[in-house]
What we know:
Layout: H1 2-26, H2 37-43, E1 45-56, E2 64-74, H3 78-83, H4 85-98, H5 111-121, E3 126-136
Antiparallel strand pairs: 1-2, 2-3
Amino acid sequence: xxxxxxxxxxxxxxxxxxxxxxxxxxxxxxxxxxxxxxxxxxxxxxxxxxxxxxxxxxxxxxxxxxxxxxxxxxxxxxxxxxxxxxxxxxxxxxxxxxxxxxxxxxxxxxxxxxxxxxxxxxxxxxxxxxxxxxxxx
Length: 137
């Protein structure tokens, strides 16, 4: 009986909180958590995935690697970035070819690529870039 009551109260709290956030958004108000810059920066992003790149493999186990790259952009700048995809793909491809750590995707650093793209598109357009998937051919 007590467990059922606790579950029911927890359900009411969750539903009430969700209703409150929806009410805030529809009313044009900012929820309490979104007033913190760290939380707000998590919510004002768009994620874009680039089609796989074919890159020569640095290891002898495979000839080529198919690498899928994802990145986040500032909300509202996705259209600007999509118009500059040839520039973006060329810069990312150069960074992938120069990297020797494609076998361990988390070790690839895109700092130089992000800086050069942001210099052309506007500061802060691309926030972070990472490798989502690596498959050998």
